[in-house]
What does this fold into?
Amino acid sequence: MNTTSFASQRPSCWAPYGIELQSRFLLGTAGYPSPQSLADSIAACQTQVVTVGLKRSLAGSEGGDNGFIHIIQQAMKSQGARLLPNTAGCRTAREAITLAHMSRELYGTHWLKLEVVGDEHTLQPDPWGTVEAAEQLIKDGFAVFPYCTDDLITCQRLLDVGCEVLMPWGAPIGSGQGLINPFALRTLRARLPDVPLVVDAGIGAPSHAAQAMELGFDAVLLNSAVSQAVDPVRMASAFDLAIRAGRAAFEAGVMAAQDMAVASTPVGGQPFLID
It folds into this structure.
């Protein structure tokens, strides 16, 4: 009997752009109450990928977020975490491309989370601007992780220009609504079976993250659900457990939903005793 506790087990690895990772939890670094809470949250969830906005980093260089950047760098050293800079706040493909090149110079990584916002109210990504920027950045040698909607055709176009990972939203950024369109996400997983897919944005509770993993997604990226929690460290740990549980359930085989009741202990044709 295997007596190893679930909490000590790690899920099977995945390999975005050929880099094997054990953790399927990508953690954002904005909005934490203190640098120490960020450091403790990163340690608690054992993430191997942390994201940071380049615009925020540049603002920090003038006295804003230097403590946070130092914590991120320390986590990269102590946990072997990889940095995933993002172009959050960009409204055009040209702006995102320029910021991406600045990011590579500043951080020395060709990994990039590409964001091109198309709507100010929902912060929905601009599909045309995202595809345009992704195509150029891939030509420039970047490993692009595009933040996109759950639209299958947009995702296919991003793959056509060379993206190897897709990051469809679960719901609008910071909304905490969870997976508002499970059908579209299931469709993406079914139609793109060999593409690493990461649910990014809108996750508000560990149950939302578990649901995404049960659908067969490869990883989850979130920020606000941890950084805005009363206890960010405990919440980071809770999400880590939920993500691992969801992946384990997917690999074990989640039972199919039924329209009608199906007896778990059928008695037809079986002998039984009556007192």
